[in-house]
Amino acid sequence: MKFPVAALSVLLLAGACGQQANPVGEAVDRPASETTLHRGNGVEPDSMDPHKGEGTSGANILRDLFDGLVGTAPDGGLEPGAAESWDISDDLMIYTFHLRPDGRWSNGDPVTAEDFVYGLRRSADPATLSEYSQVLAPILNAEEVIHGSLPPESLGVEAVDDQTLVIRLKGPTPYFLELLTHATTYPVHRTSVERYGNRFARPGNLISNGAYVLDEWVVQSHIRLVKNPYYHGADTVRIENVYYYSIENPSVELKRYRAGELDWTESVPHQQLDWIRENMPEELRIAPYFGSYYYGFNVTRPPFKDQTGLRRALTMVVRRDILTEKVTGAGELPAVTYVPPVTGYAAPLPEWATWSWEKRLEEARRLYEEAGYSEDNPLEIEIRYNTNENHRRIALALSAMWKQALGVRCRLLNEEFKVFLETRKSKAVTELFRAAWIGDYQDPFSFLEIMHSTHGQNDVGYANPLYDALIEGSMVETDPATRMQMLQDAERILLEDQPVVPLFFYVNRRVIKPWVKGWDDSLLDYHPTRHMYIDRPAAGR
Amino acid sequence: MLAYAFKRFIGALPTLFVLIALAFFMIRAAPGGPFDAERALPAEIEANLRAAYHLDEPLVQQFGRYLADLVRGDFGPSFQYKDYTVTELIMTGFPVSLRLGGLAMALAVVVGVAVGSLAALRQNSWIDHAVMSVSMTGISIPNFVMAPILILVFAILLGWLPAGGLGDGSPQNLVLPVISLALPQIAYISRLTRGSMIEVLRSNFVRTARAKGLSERTVIVRHALKPALLPVISYLGPTTAALVTGSVVIEQIFGVPGLGRYFVQGALNRDYTLVMGVIVFYGVLIVVFNLLVDLMYALLDPRVKY
Questions:
Q1: Are A468 and A525 found together in one domain?
Q2: Whole-complex ipTM
Q3: How far off is chain B from A194, nearest CA to CA, in Å?
Q4: What pLDDT, in 10s, does the model give residues B10-43?
Q5: Domain limits for position A207
Q6: Is B118 in the same domain as B248?
Q7: Count of domains forming chain B
Q8: Torsion angle defined by CA atoms of residues A141, A147, A153 and A156, in that order, rounded to the nearest 10 degrees
Q9: B266 at interface of A, judged by CB pairs closer than 8 A
Q10: B151 in a domain, yes or no?
Q11: Which of A322, A379, A529, A533 is exposed most, by the fewest CB atoms within 10 A?
Q12: Are the C-beta atoms of A68 and A516 separated by less than 8 Å?
């Protein structure tokens, strides 16, 4: 027993006495280094293989490691990536990309059009086991390849020469360029994939073509990237090392931020928002996020089947201002429509949204009674959500609002996440349930397509041929204005049929140290590190 | 003794088999699967994934396949962490948990036994009462309360120690997690030691030793301590196995990349192979540590012979 005692006391003493040398205490007011950035990044990323990863935490890192054909500007807009320019045919079906001649992999190999052909085919190939290959669906033959009915070689991509890549689409897809910022479309380095197989996405093995290279990966702790000297824009990349920390609990993340160990957090804990507002208001950043939080009615079974009026009544009497101010409280936008605000799209406001509260209440009560319910015979419903404190508080607030306005009796039922997903999908027992959707690209189609009657995500069971026709029509429409009009008409029909109760649009919230510069708000929350830099004087320290 | 150890290990195999079978069928019985997410997979893609991981086979066949792989020492690929196999995940997490848990256990034994013995020797004195009330507090305060308080004080307010992460593995990063892990154990062990020491001090052989005129020091250290430690040793077996396989609470709060998180995350993600891997690993450790406890008994208690 003697040895461990001695060893332990030495260790503990070393820890306690090491304080003079420990920079942690001072780091709170100044950056630890001018060239190293420490980013909190939520849950442990599932993969560094761009064709296998599917979570946002992995995507954040992959965006630094790889350079897609199209890149992401600080504000989330598009900018040239591995392709310096592109031509689009008049029918919007053929994209010709001109790759930059100075594109290099992190081992110095040139990045060629063939690398993109290989990457896209591999991404679509069912043998790759990608969970996100659906992103490629607009490419000619992609769905057939993904489903295994055509070989990967038949994918509509072709390398004309080393610098010219042609992608043929199935239909005009106005958001196609934006899809090319998604990791699923990144190129991969063929020889290292073939040499290392499943182990190719490891430090030392992973060859990437972006601003950074994977240098270290301690699972459940952090991933360290270092600058890629071969990157075509290397002279503009000012952060030399980026640490991405896997911290799934926002309270823990905030503590590490306050201790000076992080410059940038992935989120902030809901319960501590008020404290942050009071104590570090300049470091708190809240910005719109392309996500919609709503409740779905299961329209395939009672009590909501064929009850548009009843569904409308419940939708009308939700006090969204109270919900966003008192319950969620981070500056979320109250929502009466389903698609979040996005440039170029005018949301079709329902008529009742402009009514006074009294008028809404009156109409809702009328509809409620029309559906056969009254004070003596109240509607009894079950609200189902996945176990989470925020979801519970929202469900509680809604049930109180419905009880007060209409006398509805709600029963709250929470389930563990995967159980919830399964019950929601099966549509066999659900009545009213929590749902949310985050757009993959800045276009209303990203939201509206999931309400198509055949879409796998349509957990409400909504089916309206008119709606389906508009969605399908928008997929082949080449005129942008007509297409947007079709999407708007589709959403109007959706809101009239009311299979969902829109509640609010998401925001991102995080704390950022004042010396971190070069970033901007981004609707999809894309923040590539290559634009960022550390500016200590600007932070006033 | 070696033959005994071997016999015990063989005897544990049926237990391990039952454990594996129970865990295997229970996690499969849970609704939802590894590929369910807020964003549902298209049916064809999900079918392709299920086939690739053999999830489309009958359950019994999958179980047979799992056992066959296990015998070859292959825990399979992780469903969630696609770049790693379960064996790799366990082998990177275990050393971290072992270091933290081992240090915490060593600290707990040293402090707990010392403080507990002291309290027993000064029974009903102020020292005894102080030790017992502090340790009661130690047992009652869960470490998900204690750990954030320690971080707040030592990392944020005083800035002496890091708030989380392992850093480059320096001792500073270990101090807070080790203390948080050790505190409840110190409390528990000191109470155990005190109780058993008080009992031993009243036994006949201690009275005999004193009657022989041995010094108090010799009586305590040579005669009383060993038998007084027996209940502590029994407690240490399973507890050490639990501590060295990581604590999900401590690992999350301090951002420590140990094994503990895999138990919870594996189950939440329905990462079947990962859950099975950590359960089998933990099961084997429990068997090993219980065996060690029994062997320690033979060393400490002259009445026990194998």
A1: no
A2: 0.87
A3: 15
A4: 888 899 999 999 999 999 998 888 888 878 888 8
A5: 36-240+512-531
A6: yes
A7: 2
A8: 20
A9: no
A10: yes
A11: A322
A12: no
